[in-house]
Amino acid sequence: MTKKLELYRCNICGNLAEVIIPGAGELVCCGESMELLEAKNNDAEANEKHVPVFMKDEQGKNEVRVGSTLHPMEENHYIMFIETITPDYNRAELQYLHPGEEAKMLIGEKLGKELAREFCSIHGLWEGKSD
Ligand SMILES: [Fe+2]
């Protein structure tokens, strides 16, 4: 049984799937069960910062940055997407990112306490909450 907004990865082909509407079945890709990704939320032992942080940009707009110092966005190591999710899990917004861009996402309004998660091409899934 899946749950809303869970992320599953195929460790053979790299497919990454998000559950929009949960169902009873098991997610399978390339003939094997897909792996349920668990977000990490503390990278004190890593060299880079991965935990998403909610803050204001120079114009006072709300944004989510990946890391208190921005994560690198290199060809082989970058943040593939950032997603924000409201506490009731009824609204999610996903921003794809590419090498050369900045590891951040503008968010229009902030609806109470939100969750942000990001996926690093090398270090996987991380999450952080707004204050
Ligand atoms: Fe990384």
Top keywords for this entry?
Immunoglobulin-like, four-stranded antiparallel sheet, mainly beta, single chain, Rubrerythrin, domain 2, globular, 2 domains, three-stranded antiparallel sheet, 0% helix, 131 residues, binds fe (ii) ion
Describe the protein in words.
The chain has strands at residues 7-9, 16-18, 28-29, 32-33, 35-36, 52-56, 62-66, 79-85, 92-96, 104-106, 115-120, 124-129. The protein contains no helices and twelve strands. 0% of the residues lie in helices and 37% in strands. With 131 residues, the protein is an all-beta fold. Strands 9-8-11-12 form a four-stranded antiparallel sheet, with no helix packed on it. The protein has a three-stranded antiparallel sheet with strand order 2-1-5, with no helix packed on it. Strands 6-7-10 form a three-stranded antiparallel sheet, with no helix packed on it. The chain has two domains: 7-36, Single Sheet (Rubrerythrin, domain 2); 52-129, Immunoglobulin-like (Sandwich). Fe (ii) ion is lined by residues 48, 50, 71, 77, 120, 122-123.
